[in-house]
Amino acid sequence: MKTFKTIYLGGLMALCLLSTTSCNDYLDVTPPSDVSPEKYFTTADQLGAYTINLYCSYKNWNAEDDATGGQFPSHADYTSFIHDDMGTDNETAKSTNARFYEGSTFKVGATGGKWNFNNINNINFFINTAEPKLDKGEVAGDETAAKHYLGEGYFLRAQEYFFRLRKFGDFPIIKECLPDDRATLIEASKRQPRNKVARFILEDLDKAASLLTNNKLGRNRISKDVALLLKARVALYEATFEKYHAGSPRVPDASAGWPGANMDYNKNFTYDNASEVKFFLQQALDASKLVADAHPQLAQNSFEEIGETNKMGSNEYYDMFACDDPSAIDEVLMYRSYIRTLAGGHSLTQWMAQSDRGYTQEFANCFLMQNGLPVYATGSGYAGDDYVQDTKVGRDWRWKLFMKAPNEYIFSNTKDQVPNPPRVYSSSMKFRCSTGYMKSKAFSKNGLDNGTNKDETASIIFRASEAYLIYLEAAWEMYGDALDVAAWKYWKALRSRAGIDVAPQVTIDATDLDKEETTSHDFALYSAGSRITSKVLYNIRRERRCELISEGFRMDDLIRWRSLDQLAKHSYFLHGCKIFGPMQSLYKASNLKYDQADDSKNNVSSPDDTKGALNGDARYLSMFRTSKNGEFYNAGMTWRQAHYLYPIAVNHFLESSKDGATIETSTIYQNPGYSTVADTPAEKDK
Fold first, then answer.
1. Could you tell me which of 580, 563, 561 has the C-alpha nearest to residue 572?
2. How far apart are CA 38 and CA 30, in angstroms?
3. Model confidence over 66-103: pLDDT tens digits?
4. What domains are there in the chain, each with its CATH number?
C-alpha cells in the first residue's frame, strides 16, 4: 500500500498529507496516517469530506497578519474569507498596519512568511487523484455531487493562488504533486510572471464553474455563482493592478526594471500591458454580469434603524450580516454558519463592542447624504459632527445601519420565535470604541452571542452585490465616464438600497475633488502618486468603499489602485470624532487624559496638538498622537513602494539554490525594493 510523506524544499511540499483542522471534530475523515490513493476518493462523500476540510483554513488565504487578525481577531480556523478594514483609512486604533511605518518594522524575514505551498499541494493531491477516478467512473455515489466536489478543489486552488498573487505577484505555478527529487523541485520553484499566474487562476475558476452546481448542496458550500464571482474579483484586481502599477518593476515589464527579466528562464517572455489590462477587464465584466443578472434582488432595506431609541427594528439588509441563517436571502451566495455546542462559535460581537478600534472621521465624512449630495455641498442638509449621532441624520443608510452611536442599544429586550431552546436577549453590556464611531456590521441582536466563542452569527463570505460593484468599476476602466446601461442600472440599485434614490449624476455634478481632499482625505483620490481627475471614477470608488464597509476589501483596493504613493511625500494622521467639541461635556474631566506628565497615561490626543490635527482642528481625536512612545506618533502613516508586495524570506532562496547555500544561484528572485538579507527593511523611494 502506498503512503504519503512530506518533502520540503524552498517552501515546496512535494507529496501531500491529508489536511487536518478543527473541522475533524465533526467530519468522519480517515486518519492521515492511514490514507492511500487505493482506498480513498472512491465515493462522492469522501470527496466532499476532503474539500470541506480545506474550507477551515481561511487564515492562510486572506488574513492581514500585520493588522490584528481580520474579522475574527484570534486567527482561529473559523476565520472567514473576509476580514475587516483595520490598517487602512477606514478603521483605526492607536496604531495601524506595519507597512505604513516609517521606522520600517516591515522587514525581510529569515524564514517562513507567506511563501508556502502546504494547502496548494493538498489540493493538487486531491485533484490529481480524484479527477482520473471520476473520468474512469471509479467514484461511487451521486455523480453530480462528485463533480461538484472536484469543482470545489479547483476553486480552492484558485483561492490559494489569488492569495499568493496579491502578496507576491509572480509565483510558481504548481499543478502536480512532485517527486522527491531536488532538481525537479528546484525547477518547479521558478516564479511565473504575475499575469500568467492570474490567467492560471481564471482557468481554474472556469474549470470550477463547469463542474459546480448552484445551491444543490446549500449556501454553506461553494457554488457555480461563487466561482464566477471570485473570477470577476480576480480579473478586476489584476486588470487594475497592472494598469496602475504600469511603469513599475511590480509588473512583468523588463523596461520598467522587473527583476524576473534577469532570470534566464524568462528570456523569451514578452509582455503587453495594454492588452493584458483589456483582457482582464473583459473577463471581469463578463463574469460579474452573469452573477449580477442572476441575482437582481438585493436584500431589502426597510429603512428602520437597529437599536435606535431602544427599538430593535426589522431590517433585512442589517440582518443579512447579523443573523444565524441568511439562506433565504438571494443576495447571499455563500456563508458560514456556527453551532456553539457542536464546533464552537466565534467572538465577533463581543470583540466589536470592546475593541480598541473604530471607523475614522475621514470615513464618516465620505458617506453621502440621502439626497445624493456630499456633506460639503450647498443644500446637503448635513447636521454636522458635534455629536456622533448627528453624523447619521439624513445620511446614506450604510452609515446609519453599520455605525453605532452612543445609546443605540444593540440587543433586543424581547424574545423572538427561535428554535428550541429559546434564546434570551439582553442589553446589559459595556461598549468601547477608540474613535467614537463604533463598528456594527455583523453585530448580533442576540445577547447570547456576546461572549468568547459563543457568537453564532453567520459569516457572509460571498454576496451578489460585489458583482454589481465589480461590473461598475470594470465598465469605467473599459469605457471611461461613458458607462454602459448595465453599469448605471447596477449603480442605481446599490444607491437605492442605501436610501440614495437619486441619479448618480446628481452626486457627480456636486462632487468637488478639492473638497473631498479636505473632508474625507480619501486615499483613493490618488493612483500612482497623482490625483485622479474623473469625478465618475472617484464616486465609483466611493460607492465601493461605502457598500463594502468592514468587509476587508479596502487594503486590497488601495494596493491595486496604487493609492498610497503620495504618503511617501506627505504622511498622514488618522482621526476620530470631535471629542473636544460639545461632546466633551458628556465626559467626566478625569476620563479624558491628555498632556499628562507621564504621557503613557494619556488616552486621547491633546486639544492643543496641531501637528496631528484634522485640517489644523485639534478638537478631533488624533489617533496616533496619544503617547510619544507610539511608533506612529511623529511619522504618521507613510509608505514605501516596495510595500505594495511582500518580501520573500531568506531561507527560500537558499533552499532553491543549486548548492543549498548560495543565494545568487537560486531559481527565485526577490520582490522589488527588498534585499535578500534577513531583518532588513525595504529601500526608501527615490
1. 563
2. 13
3. 322 223 333 333 334 345 788 899 999 888 888 998 87
4. 10-65+114-294 (1.25.40.890)
